[in-house]
Amino acid sequence: MLSCPTTDDLFRARIDQMIDLRHPLAVLASRMPWQEIEAGVAHRFVRKAHENVAMPDLDLFGEKPPSVTIDVRSSENRS
Asked: What is the reported pTM?
């Protein structure tokens, strides 16, 4: 009988079992100085605020819609 590696999901292989670490691109990726590369280009990806220009409120799905305030008091209580 064949022995199968233990996974959390019976029908999915673990990613470390799917990648051949001897492949030239995997070897190259393991030798790249990723921290130095990230430090060298990080300044180009920083969002910069411009003077007198409001920055949009961003969340996971893009800009947040403007908040709306609704007055729910009855008309007789309003002054």
From this structure: 0.41
